[in-house]
Amino acid sequence: ATNVGGRTSHSAIMARSMEIPAVVGLRDITKKVEPGSVVILDGNRGRVIINPSFQQLENYRKKKKRFISHKKNLEILRSLPAQTLDGREVSLAANIAAPEEVELAVREGAEGIGLYRTEYLYMNRSSLPSEDEQVEAYKKVLEKAASNSVIIRTLDLGGDKFISHFPVPAEINPFMGWRAIRLCLERVDIFETQLRAILRASRFGNGKIMYPMISGVEEIRKVNQILAGIKEKLRREGTPFAENVETGIMIEIPSAAVIADLLAKEVDFFSLGTNDLIQYSLAVDRVNEKVAYLYQPLHPSILRLIDNVIKCAHREDIWVGVCGEMASDPLSVLILLGLGVDEFSVAPTSLLEIKKIIRSTEWKETQEIAVKMLKSKTSYEAKRLAERKLSQRIKRIVRGNNHAG
Question: Read out DSSP for 182-237?
Answer without folding.
Answer: HHHHHSHHHHHHHHHHHHHHGGGSEEEEEESS--SHHHHHHHHHHHHHHHHHHHHH
